[in-house]
Amino acid sequence: MRRDTIYDRDLDRVPANHQPLTPLAYLDRAARVFPDHVAVIHGDLRRSYAELYARARRLASALAARGIGRGDTVAVLLANTPAMIECHYGVPMTGAVLNTLNTRLDSAALAFCLDHGEAKVLITDREFSRIAGPALEQAGVTPLVIDYDDPEHTGPGERLGSLDYEALLAEGDPAHDWAMPDDEWDAISLNYTSGTTGDPKGVVYHHRGAALLALGNVVTGGLAQHPVYLWTLPMFHCNGWCFPWTLSIVAGTHVCLRQVRADAMYRLMAEHGVTHLCGAPIVMSLLLNAPEAERRPLPHRVAFFTAAAPPPEAVLSGMAEAGFAVTHLYGLTESYGPAVVNAWHDAWDALPPDEQAAKKARQGVRYPVLEGLDVRDPETMEPVPADGTTLGEVMMRGNVVMRGYLKNPTATRAAFAGGWFHTGDLGVKHADGYVQLKDRSKDIIISGGENISSIEVEDALFKHPAVAAAAVVAKPDERWGETPCAFVELRPGGQASAEDLVAWCRERLASYKLPRHVIFGELPKTSTGKVQKYLLRERAREG
Amino acid sequence: MRRDTIYDRDLDRVPANHQPLTPLAYLDRAARVFPDHVAVIHGDLRRSYAELYARARRLASALAARGIGRGDTVAVLLANTPAMIECHYGVPMTGAVLNTLNTRLDSAALAFCLDHGEAKVLITDREFSRIAGPALEQAGVTPLVIDYDDPEHTGPGERLGSLDYEALLAEGDPAHDWAMPDDEWDAISLNYTSGTTGDPKGVVYHHRGAALLALGNVVTGGLAQHPVYLWTLPMFHCNGWCFPWTLSIVAGTHVCLRQVRADAMYRLMAEHGVTHLCGAPIVMSLLLNAPEAERRPLPHRVAFFTAAAPPPEAVLSGMAEAGFAVTHLYGLTESYGPAVVNAWHDAWDALPPDEQAAKKARQGVRYPVLEGLDVRDPETMEPVPADGTTLGEVMMRGNVVMRGYLKNPTATRAAFAGGWFHTGDLGVKHADGYVQLKDRSKDIIISGGENISSIEVEDALFKHPAVAAAAVVAKPDERWGETPCAFVELRPGGQASAEDLVAWCRERLASYKLPRHVIFGELPKTSTGKVQKYLLRERAREG
User: Fold this and answer.
1) Which of A134, A218, A316, B380 is the most exposed place for a label (fewest CB within 10 A)?
2) Do A399 and B17 touch (CB under 8 A)?
């Protein structure tokens, strides 16, 4: 490789031509270009971009005055509120790292996160004092506690500290001259994985990745100027897929929402002309199963970005009829949220509904800002053939992959072995290059030496009109090693027996894939709407 | 600054989480995701993204086999043809640097560029043999000459070398396993400034900046999936404002065009459903002044991005009536083309046409991918007040500013003095932060100690119904130092005397700003449509 060409002389990085990539620059721009545009709606509250920026600068200035700076962790336990948006800017403006805590963790798990992240500050919503209080008692660290008392929260909960969030902001300077990070590789946020097994791992994001994924969201979502975005996805989850930063690029309006309820969603969509929202499949179910009295006509076709599980055909057609345009995304905490999109081909519009649903169920292709996506054999690192059937591990590489796991070099090295991030998800590559998940490694059921995809069995169950949700796990079996065990949640008023469902599946699946056991009841879910299969696995073992 | 925080340990850049930013990755993605979508239209030719990518890889492979690699300059003298698009990918895939030469230079200037850039290869369109032949004779370098014989060119010109472009591609491997650049700071292209004064300077772009400006175009232009883009802007000009790379992000269709003529533009827009085009104001004039027989109805509202000069009110309203949505951009060769946008506020739609035109005439605000834009005193580097009247120099900083001028550290240092890129354009900052050009430093006329903006006088002249184009320069004057001298091109059939025009201006300008001389005739323009004021200055001095 030639290393001293004419282009290697006197053409160096200087401040004029090289600045750190950071999403913080997007808010600075939005506030300058569209100062009066509404940035935040929350109940009756309206805040312009000038006001949002001023409040973020106040926050940064007040935190800096209290000694918070580069590499300090600022933890927050907040619902989807204006304060949560402000923290996404004000905290990293000091050089500190934003750690958004899952509001549905128990106090022991919260205490673990505070200690592991070495939190210097905890900003906590009054609603969550019941878990935050004991967590602070259990934790070894003693962060500065700041209470956020949101007027929109009228339920129980109490203040924990001596300092109020608004009082902290009042200490700050609305014109604070904050500095861009010295290095775009600097950490911007810390996200603990929801941890279906073992201790949570601390995923570290950097300014470069957050800036790029935010651009990627605009391109992939086709966001025009001034979208109106409804906060149904928790901002504590992968920093709300980076949408707190994304919206500043296009000067969009954040519509806050403390609790995901169908009536509030329909009302806010109608009142504010919502154009986009994101959410797990559970949010689509909520919208579709809402009683007529809670519904309101949509203002126009609303873009809905979903991830976590492929949308079943019935849900997709229901959403289309209800006026939503659903885009299926895929990603992990480790990839800043979504980094893969089910890019739609116009020609597919002509396919029959079931074939469209089959296309839509595929996870798809990389975002333009993710440099590599592949399905590989994790042992040999060889790509699997693009045959739609050979299983391999889904792998990613690029600038929207995390820096690594905090204080866990062993896990980081394992995740990045062979030059790619190992997602832990098993999948196939179709002939057209689209990736489709088949299962997480541990969700594959091996029965009589045959691999059974639990997703495939769940899909078959989901198509039954009485089924609201279904999860299939392995049940140990003396003869077969494992057999599929189905947990099924029926729709209100829906009726089906175990025999009905097995007969239904028999028409759709090879016989070795049929569930040998069907158990009815509500499925246990994580705070982000993922079914907790490890609990079901325990039940299957016991039952 | 804390330098050893928990975030500074064991969270390093590795291939899984850090890849060079490069626009080359966009074509790879488009070809994988939308292999069959039409990438290039040229006459009757249609090429899909799979074909475009295969041809770019053939080109890269063939050049590499002939020893072309990192830091080598590959010069091209091409019209807006499929080969030109292929070169934007195939050349940098080898690590080499693409130098797109202005097809309207004379042979001496071409020879200068070939020598200064140390060209190893010249790919040249048969049409330009008349200048390329002598340039090769005059140049000291002896590049490998490759002839591109475009079937759409049926005019004169001959082959110069022994190697044909298609024969070169036939040597290459369509599945060539090219490598991303090692470093996103590596040069991707070399653009010689059009040089209204002195020798051209070689502006060096890098992969990082090109990748980011391409994303910025998608965001700023609101490009959805599959736009259809008409090539009216020369690709030799700032790499066509990076649109050869931009379109791959959204899998758009390039509609090639060798010569900018109204009939061809209208025909192609109608036939192919063109959604976007870019061009200097001269292109808008061409469209608006086209005879009825050359016009065709537009397929829908067409987005037109213009730069180089603020669009006059009459042109704006004419374009709106004709069905175009005009966006005013601003930039320089040094900023990868446009890096500033006249971001429109919805509220301005309610203003009367003249006030809308006044808003639209402002250059505006930074692209989301430009980190800094300001108007400053070039001596003290102090920002001017945002009062709309205090003149300063427009300055930029960020990742879409060039690496520098090739082999010219003195000019590079001067351009980047004080941590900002000095554009050489004089302007003001309005109360809302929008920047407006008043003049290039050398275009300011100083008369009796007062600064006169030549743009202001030109604007006044342009509003006269008989005026097609106007340029105002300084004429040396014994008493006043300088006085404004106007060169005016009348519309076909338009009639106005010098006295008429001065009287017209008197109603609109302070008397010291009135042109003292008015000279009628066609204005000399550069190949990119800029009026060559240095020629007018000579005439004014002599006349």
Assistant:
1) B380
2) yes
Our count of domains for chain B comes to 3
Indicate the burial class of B449 (C-beta count within 10 angstroms; 0-12, 13-18, 19 or more): exposed
Q: Is 80 exceeded by the pLDDT of residue A264? A: yes
B359 close contact with A: CB closer than 8 A: no
Distance from CA of B399 to the nearest CA of A (A): 5
Phi, psi of B19 (to 5 degrees): -130, 150
- Residue B139's φ and ψ, nearest 5 degrees, are -75, 150
Are residues B306 and B200 part of one domain?
no
Does residue A137 lie in a domain region?
yes
Q: How confident is the model at residue B447 (pLDDT cuts 50, 70, 90)?
A: confident
The ipTM, to two decimals, is 0.87
Interval B180-190: pLDDT, tens: 999 999 999 99
The answer on pLDDT for A456 being more than 90 is no
Interface membership of B97 toward A (CB under 8 Å): yes
Of B118, B218, B371, the CB nearest to A219: B218
Q: What is the mean pLDDT of chain A?
A: 92
Contacts of A25 in chain B (CB under 8 A): 368, 371
Which candidate in B11, B98, B335, B397 is best for mutational testing of the A interface (most A CBs within 10 A)?
A: B11
C-beta of residue A402 within 8 angstroms of C-beta of residue A210: no
Tell me what percent of the residues of chain A surpass a pLDDT of 90.
Answer: 76
pLDDT per position as a tens digit, A353-407:
889 888 988 999 999 999 999 999 988 999 999 999 998 999 999 999 999 999 9
Instruction: Say how far apart CA B475 and CA B81 lie, in whole Å.
Output: 42
Q: How far is CA B48 from CA A177, B27, B38, in A?
A: 50, 12, 4
B397 touches chain A (CB under 8 A): yes
The CATH number for A527's domain is 3.30.300.30
**B6 contacts on A by Cβ (under 8 Å):** 71, 73, 118, 406-407
Residues B393 and B510 in one domain: no
Chain B neighbors of A407, CB-CB under 8 A: 6, 9-10
Cα(A31)–Cα(A48) distance, integer angstroms: 8
Burial A184-223 (b: 16+ CB within 10 A, else e): bbbbbbbbbbbeeeeebbbbbbbbbbbbbbbbbbbbbbbb
The per-residue pLDDT for A448 is 72
Q: Write the CB contacts of B293 (distance below 8 Å, at least 6 apart in sequence).
A: none
What are B473-525's pLDDT values in tens digits? 988 887 777 889 999 999 888 899 999 999 999 988 888 889 999 999 998 88
| Angstroms from A143 CA to nearest CA on chain B | 16
A302, part of any domain: no
pTM for the model: 0.87
Taking one residue from A and the other from B, the number of pairs with CB-CB distance under 8 angstroms is 193
Binary contact (B371, A180; C-beta < 8 A)? yes
Tens digits of per-residue pLDDT, B18-76? 999 999 999 999 999 999 999 999 999 999 999 999 999 999 999 999 999 999 999 99
The verdict on B150 and B292 lying in the same domain is no
Domain boundary among B393, B426, B441: B441
pLDDT confidence of A334, banded at 50, 70, 90? very high
Single residue among B397, B415, B441 that ends a domain in this structure: B441
E strands along B333-477, which residues?
A: 337-341, 365-366, 372-376, 392-397, 404-405, 421-429, 435-440, 445-447, 450-452, 467-477
User: Tokens in use for B194?
Assistant: 């059009």
Read off φ and ψ for residue A447, nearest 5 degrees.
-120, 115
Best mutation target, A7, A9, A74, A405, to test chain B (most B CBs within 10 A): A7
Beta bridge partners of B5: none
Q: Which of A4, A9, A11, A21 to mutate to test the interface with B (most CBs of B within 10 A)?
A: A11
Which residues between 458 and 497 in chain A have a beta carbon less than 8 angstroms from any beta carbon of chain B? none
